[in-house]
Amino acid sequence: MAQEIEEQHVEPLSSIGQPLCVKNFIWSEEEWPTITYENFADGDGIPTISFREIKSQNYETLCKAMVDACTNWGFFRLVDHGVSLETIEKVKLRWNELFDLPMEQKLKGARSACLPLGYCATNPDYGKDLPWAEILQLLQSPQQVVAFASKVFGDEHQPFSDAMIEYMQELDKLGMTIFEMLAHGLGLTDNFFTQNFEEKDSTMIRVHRYPPCPLPEKCLGLGSHSDPHTLTILLQDDVGGLQILKSDSQWIGVRPIPNSFVINVGDTLEAWTNGRLKSVVHRAVVNKEKQRLSSAYFLCPTSSAIIACPPQLMNSDTNPRKYSPFTWGDFRKQLLVQKRVLGKTALKRYLI
Ligand SMILES: O=C(O)CCC(=O)C(=O)O
Ligand SMILES: [Fe+2]
After folding, report:
1. What's 24's DSSP letter?
2. For the chain, how many structural domains are there in total?
3. Quick one: which ligand is closest to 297's CA?
4. Strands 250-253 and 326-327, how do they pair?
5. Ligand 1 near 180 CB (within 6 A)
6. For the whole model, what pTM was predicted?
7. Number of H helices, E strands in the chain
8. 270 lines ligand 1 (CB under 6 A)
9. Which of 16, 56, 152, 241 would you call most buried, defined as having the most Cβ atoms within 10 angstroms of its Cβ?
10. Is 133 in the pocket of ligand 1 (CB under 6 A)?
11. CB–CB of 244/225 below 8 Å?
12. Alpha carbon of 339 to ligand 1 centroid (Å)
């Protein structure tokens, strides 16, 4: 029986001419998930922040709560975020339409080995520990979205392109609000972070669709990693599968709540705040019954932005500088060479 499952062909994740079966997706044993996709009990302590009262005098409290969430968890859920449900539903529909297309058509927009932008079914370049996911990765640039969509949908690209561009513009605005609030809560000038985000040359989106998996106890949608960027705004559907690593090496599931985003701190923001805000390792697990859709919007500063912790967040005796200042462009270049981020390792190169 086990043998039969392992020999099964995995149609939704096989590119043309590259048939894959379940056994090609079995991960190294240390990585096998210890809790299932719908085990959320331990994750209910993850803070939930609402923007409903953002305009009132509660602003101060809200900013502090956000900083606390990013300090203690590296993650929070955001509700009443102001991005319209219509924008979100529209883009989800377009993503599903894309993933539902025949493989030949999707591969017209395939990513190339040298540039990780476009569509791919799993990521065969990894060789082993293959993600159980279809993935679309694109830069925030409207031109790039249109170029990708035109390759895949031809003259019919407009609904996809428009939905995607609108969604990313909304998320960008939301990201800037969060950065202002974090700066405020940390006692920095409100534009401390946002002034570095004028050019959006490397901000990007990654959309995943994880098909049902016959062997979820040995496969992973996305392996454990921290996000190297600054801030991630994650949209997940109601299935569940995102798990985060608590400090005591315990994995906990993030319960999906309707019309919310999951926000998490990336490595770059951790360095920028001298470790005050934490970039926490997480992963996506899969399940036998349901496909799952998620999308991560990764906010990145201008390439020339210098990531250096401001003096207000350090203390020469008790909390000296932990990372040598670096530019986002330099870090990004190194990440592109590294290709695969495993666990939380990317920042080590700048440790003092
Ligand atoms: O699918 C998820 O819930 C996680 C996605 C993620 O962590 C990422 O794309 O970096
Ligand atoms: Fe991530």
Report:
1. G
2. 1
3. 1
4. unpaired
5. no
6. 0.96
7. 8, 14
8. no
9. 241
10. no
11. no
12. 16
